[in-house]
Amino acid sequence: MTAVEGTVVPVDEVEALAVDGLHWLLGTARETEGGGLGWPTRPSDDELNPMFYSGTAGVVPVLLEARRHFGDDSYGDMAVRAARSLAAAVDDHDDDSLYFGRTGIALVLRAVHDELGDSGAGAAADRALRIVRSRFDGTRWGTLFELMGGNAGIGLGASTLGDAELAVLALEPYLRTAEKTPSGVQWAHRPNVESRLHHVSHGTLGIVSALARVGRATGRADFVEAALAGAADVVARDEAGPDGFLVPHSDPPWRPDLTQRISYGWCHGPAGDAQAFRVLRDVTADPVWTSLADRCWHTVTRSGLPQRLRPGFWDNNGRCCGTAGVLALACDRLAEQHDAAADAGFTHVLVADLAARSTRDGEGARWSNVEHRATPSALEPCTGWAMGNAGIVRELLRFVRLSRGGDPAYAFDWPDQPSVRRAAGAA
């Protein structure tokens, strides 16, 4: 079942769907030693997962969002218990990155400290960042060398946590590893590969976002210059101008047997490209970046999503690769009052599609993504930020609040999504 254009789900019903999504999510939690709470990636998994991308750290932001939205401290209590589980994982987790490792865990722990006054969470965040620093080899932390799993995300996270020195250490290697192209620069996302990825999650624009934000925060003009060169390379690859913006996943294609050449979501498409251009807008004050973000939105809204036009097209509801990630950008645009009427219409289509695709019963609401190459194609619902309830419910709650004239800010901002900026003269 899918949403029909023009469908509007009443805001109270969207809020009720979010409540049901929280109910299912809390029902999948597991108690840990010392009174903590942890989440697996999927309810059927034996092991708990501490990551932001797909586990416990990614659940905490929606708990903070629900606490703020409903004024219900029980969600804060659960966030504190989740922080205990994360604190216990800091020493043994074998990854240091923003989305998959200690840097993301540290950000979440610090948020619990700042929002709820939990000193243990604050101490664990500091310990996590010390470990991250100790594992730097002078160039990188592991195989990945991008936003989600590598230096760019660690630099962004360190800057957000107030460690400017570590942020600079993480990003300086991009200055000496940049590869010149006819239009700018690019970077390899991992060693010994020919393909170069272009978008936010694993490609050039994710590195651009980190260089631009950290460059501004630390006064490093060379970082900002490298960010602009990276963005220039991606902009030169556009295939949808002058009105739209669409760049292939990678050149030469990375794993073309598994990866489509064109995507539209946050991770590898214009929904995420627009967020990188919003960062550059804020850093440079150059209106060209607002124009490029608008062109991304033009392409997204005319792509056919959230309809599933063919096998493999738009099979995901989640924040990383699917509808919830587009909803995040839609709500950013509504808050910044671009073309409010048009943006609102498409935003309602996205919300209606999420409502239509939910499974709701006595256990609550959850969403199944699709693997069209498998039979059966419906995948087990996930708990976390990237593909599961945590990421979807967080965006639904923000949509509800924005629809009622409330604050568009999240309870806890993630560092690669810029805060909304009201247009000049906006109410």
Number of strands: 8
Based on CA atoms alone, the radius of gyration comes out at 20 Å
Q: Approximately what portion of the residues adopt beta-strand conformation?
A: 5-15%
Assembly level: single chain
Low-confidence segments, given as residue ranges, are none
What composes the largest sheet?
2 strands, antiparallel
Given helix and strand content, the structural type is mainly alpha
The number of helical runs is 14
Order of helices and strands: HEEHHHHHHEEEHHEHHHHEEH
Neighbour order of strands in the largest sheet:
1-2
Helical amount among residues, as a percent range?
40-55%
- Sum up the overall morphology in one term: globular
Mean pLDDT: 95
Distance between the termini: 38 Å
Can you characterise this structure?
It is a single chain. Helix 1 runs antiparallel to helix 14, helix 3 packs antiparallel against helix 4 and helix 8 runs antiparallel to helix 9. Helix content is 50%, strand content 5%. By secondary structure, it is mainly alpha-helical. Strand 3 and strand 4 form a beta hairpin. The longest helix is centred in the last third of the chain and has 18 residues. The chain has a two-stranded antiparallel sheet. It has a two-stranded antiparallel sheet with strand order 3-4. A two-stranded antiparallel sheet has the order 5-6.
